[in-house]
Amino acid sequence: MSYSDFEDEVKTLTNLEEASKFLNWDEEVMMPENGVMPRSRQKSTLSKVRHEKLTSDNLGEIIDSIDENELDEDQKANMRELKREREKMLKVPGKLIEKISQKESECVDVWKKAREEDDFESFAEELRELVELKREYAAALNEGEEPYKVLYKDYEPYLSFERMEKILQKLKEELNPLIDEIQESNPDLCTDAFKGSFEEDKEMRFNKEIAQELGFPDEKGRLDFSAHPFTVGNSYDTRITTRTKDNDITGSLMPTIHEAGHALYNLGVPEKFYGTPRGQPRELSIHESQSRLWENHVGRSKAFSKYLLPKLEEKFPEEFSDTSVEDCYESLNQVYDDNLIRVEADELTYHMHIIIRFEIGRKLINGDIEVEELPEIWDQKMEKYLGITPETDSEGVMQDIHWAWGSFGYFSTYTLGSVISAQLYEKIEEDIEKPENKIENGNFEPILNWLRENIHKKGRLLKTEELVEEATGQKPTAEPFLEYIEEKYSELYNL
Amino acid sequence: MSYSDFEDEVKTLTNLEEASKFLNWDEEVMMPENGVMPRSRQKSTLSKVRHEKLTSDNLGEIIDSIDENELDEDQKANMRELKREREKMLKVPGKLIEKISQKESECVDVWKKAREEDDFESFAEELRELVELKREYAAALNEGEEPYKVLYKDYEPYLSFERMEKILQKLKEELNPLIDEIQESNPDLCTDAFKGSFEEDKEMRFNKEIAQELGFPDEKGRLDFSAHPFTVGNSYDTRITTRTKDNDITGSLMPTIHEAGHALYNLGVPEKFYGTPRGQPRELSIHESQSRLWENHVGRSKAFSKYLLPKLEEKFPEEFSDTSVEDCYESLNQVYDDNLIRVEADELTYHMHIIIRFEIGRKLINGDIEVEELPEIWDQKMEKYLGITPETDSEGVMQDIHWAWGSFGYFSTYTLGSVISAQLYEKIEEDIEKPENKIENGNFEPILNWLRENIHKKGRLLKTEELVEEATGQKPTAEPFLEYIEEKYSELYNL
């Protein structure tokens, strides 16, 4: 047996996972409503078969037969990533994984209904069982460790919990007073530059045009509508979705730019490594840094408004003939200080929403609080950090699908994404002369090339912290993000 | 171990196959062009895993542990179908299957290019190797049997080769003089009732409306455009495609009706058997009888023209204000006696195209002729049976993808489909009072219900010949088709 046997096995695992991912895309975007049952069976078989193969003795023997000293760096990365996943799965009983996956899908179903009916009680019942199972899962993986840390590591194996915690702490300290200042300021920002009436077909064509100009090519992807924007794919074929929001073209356009950022990352990993971890993008925080770099540092910059407005005027003359670049920029960057909903938050208050979820989720998983206490604690923290209190649990503790999905430890990766994107963009501003001039002219290639070179091409060659350090000279750190935020909002709100 | 273990294994096999089928739909309809390589890897892994599981010792032990006397009829059908497939696969070396599948996809690639460039030589080279492999495959399955018969049985395990041959022979004898008569007649049939200019979106909406009225519901399916019309799906979720043909709305509409016929069959198999052979439609000839019943016996009837024309007038007033029902009926049923292409043939000459392929394919697989002789023999038979000779191999022996795909023994199932559809429709005319009145009023439910009851609901409970016999009182036979054809064309051409 040799390394190439190992790679064959790894590729089989990838193919099963990819098959499942594209079936999932189909489910969200194309599938007729009656297809849910057979589709969930198909996906569950794929996941069962993949688990069998990942934990098989055969794969174990192949791994044992390989002398890692004889491998090159790419091959070593493949071994590292695969062994980590395999060792994790060997620790968790297959039955427990099945139980969790079943409970998660039940919990999501109940959550959907409970959120509609503002019925926390019925959600709580399911969630309690799921939390119990997730605690069991954490104990199976690492008995002595803090359970929440174990779950976090599932999502971010190579960005330490301590570093993440320090970053959140720093943001909490610095963003809180800034939010207070903004709430006390008396600005008169334009909020409706992008409002208007847009025909769906035309809106979609406009979104496609912008995505293409950012570097998302037709022959390697698709853009469709779906209920929740998302990205699925690989170096060859990556698909994004956006949504329509009545009467505001940024309702589709900002998700398109965000998802295009994810897609450009997928498409930028070298094709020749396809099927192995080396040929996959790194996980959540880095992936999110790509989407947020394009959405926020590019898409919400004044330069981008200068680029965008003439295009909008050309395609929708009736809606944009009276709009100024300043209007666009202000509308894209206003702080919604009375907003209760994470996914509708601005770049600033967003992270307070995350910190609330991090603090509550941690206590819950670690057993310091129980499910029934969630609504009260939620409302207290909302009041304390954002000065607002939700009137219902639907727009409070039940607003996100993540906990129903069993994704505890996940939320902080969103903030890490913002933080890393600012760190990368700071370096881009050093390496590329006046990137804002390029953006204004619709020349996004220098930025894309920088990301290709410093992030995309690396796939999973480096661990997360190393990857950021090689690209920027520093491990993930909050400062560039805080500087960016303070500069932007001080100017906007005359602080 | 028990029957329920057996069913679990069978369902796993189904899920793998279904996953692959929907990925294939995606590939044909949605996938960006660059996605071919990873998609073919995904599908090949699914097929490899399915083969492993189908031929596993584990499944063998489960099968051996079951006492078939204790099973009900549905369960017995599942055992029969699964054992047949497993025993077949156990006889063929896995390596040979892999080689065939690889050669098939190479051969299709070469065929595409060769057909474009009318270059039979380069196609012949690949085809020769594929034919050799298919002969090997037939020998592995059944050493002493005529190889072509073995391959046919792969497609139609339960409709005997002898019966099929007798049917083709009968058609050849009776259709030949009829074609001569028509060629000598001097008719003045309308040929352009459906010509016009149709906007693609509107054309698609019209197709969807008709498919829905036939009984193809939105929540259980989709209709899209693709290069070649096809159907994929199960009782819950079945998708059809059609194509556009410039300036003739039947270019999309007839394929839609045909594929809707396939879809109604899939959707009519009881959901409760999903995942087992009992919950699958029977194979090609029966499936094709469903599509052809709707396309020909319903869609090309005078009653259907009466139903269709007012709808066309309403949606496309400029194109149809001067059209008569008679024009529609004639245009849908004209005999193209100088047509070289199978897929563009009418209901009559079509079967001569099939007979040519059957006779040549049989000789080729059995080693009575070799690949290099194909063009000459093809042209001779075209001249003899249809009185026309292709000028190029592209519109001659290379027109169909089937042989490049390795589908030898397949073509006759199309004719069987026509023959069985006529047999079923003859019975429908006995059981339903004046079905043409129902069609004229757009009331397709009585016909659909008859098919549901007599064909769809049965899934794979019965073998093919039994299924036809239970539905019509006779095993598959040519007479009803010949009567239908003679009646229709005698009237149209005043013979």
TrEMBL record, chains A, B:
Reaction it catalyzes: Release of a C-terminal amino acid with broad specificity, except for -Pro
Enzyme class name: hydrolase
Cofactor(s) needed by this chain: Zn(2+)
PROSITE patterns: PEPTIDASE_M32
Stretches assigned to coiled coil: 113-181
EC number(s) given by UniProt: 3.4.17.19
MF terms in GO: metal ion binding; metallocarboxypeptidase activity
InterPro entries: Peptidase_M32_Taq
Positions bound to Zn(2+): 258, 262, 288
Note on how the cofactor is bound: Binds 1 zinc ion per subunit.
Annotated keywords: Carboxypeptidase, Coiled coil, Hydrolase, Metal-binding, Metalloprotease, Protease, Zinc
GO biological process, one term: proteolysis
Keyword Zinc appears in the UniProt entry: yes
Residues the record marks as active site: 259 (proton donor/acceptor)
Function: Broad specificity carboxypetidase that releases amino acids sequentially from the C-terminus, including neutral, aromatic, polar and basic residues.
Family (UniProt): Belongs to the peptidase M32 family.
Protein name: Metal-dependent carboxypeptidase
Taxonomic lineage from the root: Archaea, Candidatus Nanohalarchaeota, Candidatus Nanohalobia, Candidatus Nanohalobiales, Candidatus Nanohalobiaceae
